[in-house]
Amino acid sequence: MNEYDSNRIYDTVKKIGYEKTVNYEDANCYLLNTCHIRDKAKEKVYHEIGRVKKIFRLKNKPLVIVAGCVAQAEHEEMLKREPYIDLVLGPQAYHKINDKILKYQDKKKKLEVTEFDAISKFEYFSKIKNQTKKISSFLTIQEGCDKFCHFCVVPFTRGPEYSRPVNQILEEAKNLVDCGSREIILLGQNVNAYNYEKKRLAHLILELEKFSGLERIRYTTSHPNDMTDDLIDVYKNSKKLMPLVHLPVQSGSNKILKLMNRKHSISSYLEIFNKLKKINSAIEFSSDFIIGYPGEDEKDFKHTLKLIEEVKFINSFSFIFSPRPGTVASDLPEIDKKKTLERLEVVQQKLFSNQINKNKSLENTTINVLVENRMDDKTKLFGRSEYMTSVLFSGSDDLIGKIVKVRIQKSNQNSLFGEIINQSNKKVA
């Protein structure tokens, strides 16, 4: 979501004359958009600010803005601890950035804006065209979360669940497609909780299905409790919804899920898995796992390994538990770090093995690839499979933005390598 937010911030500040630069030394404004999900996020901000201070030691100081979830959570401390920071902007106040920049330039007074105001934010952004010209584009449809998982800071940094109006979303999606996007990834902290005037995520997907020029639809990140039957049924009817379901489970142990306040069970998770597999056996799952959550013992850990083996997640994110300030879990006693690291390594090896096996199974098969760009070294085209796997192959630039058939020759854990074939199964020179 940070990429989407950053793009929309840039669309806004262009209105007052700012342009992007890849050279730090040329900047007269430095904006750091932050995430508070992972460990040591706050310290990483200060480290980055320190790096900027060194760059501009012998130059005029740039305007320094810290935005995003770390700004929301730590705004008062930030301004006190690091005088080099000029503006602090929470994630629901991005639409106010121009006003605050101009105000700062006029009065040179440090400012922090951290109130929750998602409605005004998206009303503002709906009036500014999304300038992203990527083949695959993000589109935020929902923000915030009401689940209050005991390890998660999102309800405190993003606020309560808010769903954008359907017409806003469809208008922005149309603009993205008109600008060349062929894939849209619907975003939300809890995207499948989307519910605007009883119109849910399933409705949005079927509306996007009608868009000429749009080839692929994805969504992330989801919660198992909001994986409703109407959303599951979309997989029966949609030709554009991709067969990869990112559905974080966090643990394979019901005991740990209860301690996390996840409000779902392993049996309910597997019920979703089985329903989708029954609709289409080609559907695959990815997930998130927290390893070493307080209270996790060897039995709990084995349950997680069992779930990984049963579902065979083809791409997942696994992290050691890190206490986030203000959450219930932040006060719980942590598990021995060495033991947690050992468990993480075992989990990651299993997940990596699943990735390798999935990619290996695609060798000597022909798959559909959405071509996104040319690699930096200019030798290969880059695209993604239906499962989001990177695919590299030779071809001409006129294929960018198109879905092509690629015969996979070899693979590794993260990528597929192949050659384009035409409709008559002949190699394309």
Descriptive account of the structure:
This protein has 429 residues and is an alpha/beta fold. The protein has three domains: 116 residues, Rossmann fold; 242 residues, pyruvate-formate lyase- activating enzyme (Alpha-Beta Horseshoe), CATH 3.80.30.20; 56 residues, OB fold (Dihydrolipoamide Acetyltransferase, E2P). The protein is built from 13 helices and 19 strands. The radius of gyration is 23 Å and the shape is globular. The relative contact order is 0.08. The mean pLDDT is 91.
Keywords:
429 residues; alpha/beta; Rossmann fold; pyruvate-formate lyase- activating enzyme; OB fold (Dihydrolipoamide Acetyltransferase, E2P); 3 domains; 5-stranded mixed β-barrel; 13 helices
- Count of runs of 4 or more consecutive helical residues: 13
The main sheet comes to: 5 strands, mixed, barrel
Q: What is the percent of helical residues?
A: 25-40%
Tell me the structural class. alpha/beta
What multimeric state do the chains show?
single chain
Percent strand = 15-25%
CATH first level of the largest domain: which class? Alpha Beta
What is the overall shape? globular
Q: What order do the strands of the largest sheet run in, or round the barrel if closed? A: 15-16-17-19-18
Q: From the coordinates shown, what is the CATH architecture of the largest domain?
A: Alpha-Beta Horseshoe
CATH superfamily of the largest domain: tm_1862 like domain
> What Rg do the Cα atoms give?
23 Å
CATH fold call of the largest domain: pyruvate-formate lyase- activating enzyme
Q: Ranges with pLDDT <50 over ≥5 residues?
A: none
The chain-level mean pLDDT equals 91
DSSP, total strands = 19
Number of domains: 3
* Terminal-residue CA separation: 38 Å
